[in-house]
Write a structure and sequence with these properties.
By secondary structure, the protein is mainly alpha-helical. 69% of the residues lie in helices and 0% in strands. The chain has one domain.
Length: 275
């Protein structure tokens, strides 16, 4: 007696994880996290010290929401410049000089995956630091909870991506990780000379302040303030939907800076060691 057999559909053949950009990014994230964990100096300078300094700088601004939030946002912009821009420039330069990037480029990951994966640990560390600082100001200093945390997260991610793009660009003229302090000093000063970062809002002539606002940290800090307070810099209270609408111009400027930084990094980034 013949038994009827049913043909089971064969599962589709899936590519190995090593060929997928997502898993390549995960592997690079693990590699950078391991390298950071084993280098205690880098961990203290880029992970612990900035957060402690941020806590000290925000202390004393509780109970008054507007000045407190403005100071906290200013400190977050400092973290973005020092933790992402400066630290990631040293990472790109050191990985290039140690031939790590060159060996990765000879493997499966694309150039874009290598650059994004190398930056992933630093960007994630910045996001955790910014989140920890926001929680600290709410629980300890008594500042209000963010009205629109989603738009704040978008601003943090875009701002970190812009800083990472310019880090890749500046690493082309950085001969070593030690030289990164000199090569990033002008760019850090320019990025921090923005109303809402180091400069107080409304303390400069309006044309100058408008011009400086066009720097990446200008729209970055403005979106954070709008999303946190639920009001614009003129004091007008905004609904949840209006916070998205009010943030659109700043988001547009940030996106333009992101495109510019990525195009310049793609054009001038160096894979070969500098001698």
């Amino acid at each position: 007696m013949n038994r009827s057999t049913t043909t089971q559909p064969r599962p589709a053949v899936t590519p190995d994880r090593a060929t997928r950009p997502f898993w390549q990014m995960v592997a690079l994230l693990r590699m950078e996290t391991t390298a950071l964990r084993r280098n205690w100096t880098a961990t203290l300078l880029s992970g612990v010290s900035p957060l402690l300094i941020g806590v000290l700088l925000t202390s004393g601004y509780g109970n008054d929401p507007v000045p407190g939030v403005r100071r906290a946002v200013s400190v977050i912009s400092l973290l973005a410049v020092f933790v992402v821009h400066h630290h990631l420039t040293t990472v790109y330069a050191s990985r290039r000089q140690e031939l790590v990037l060159k060996r990765l480029r000879a493997g499966l990951p694309s150039d874009r995956t290598i650059l994004f994966g190398t930056a992933s640990c630093t960007v994630l560390m910045f996001l955790l630091q910014a989140g920890a600082l926001v929680v600290y100001t709410i629980l300890v200093l008594g500042l209000p909870a963010p009205k629109n945390p989603l738009i704040m997260l978008v601003s943090l991610v875009l701002g970190a991506a812009v800083m990472a793009g310019f880090s890749a660009l500046l690493s082309a003229v950085t001969r070593s990780s030690e030289a990164a302090m000199l090569t990033t000093l002008p760019s850090m000063m320019i990025l921090l000379c923005t109303p809402g970062a180091l400069l107080p809002i409304g303390r400069m002539p309006e044309p100058v302040e408008t011009l400086l606002w066009l720097l990446p940290t200008g729209p970055f800090t403005e979106i954070l303030r709008i999303g946190w307070l639920g009001r614009d810099d003129d004091g007008q209270v905004l609904s949840l939907a209006e916070t998205f609408t009010a943030s659109l111009p700043s988001l547009g400027v940030l996106l333009v800076w992101l495109v510019v930084s990525l195009l310049l990094a793609r054009r001038y980034f160096r894979w070969e060691p500098r001698h």
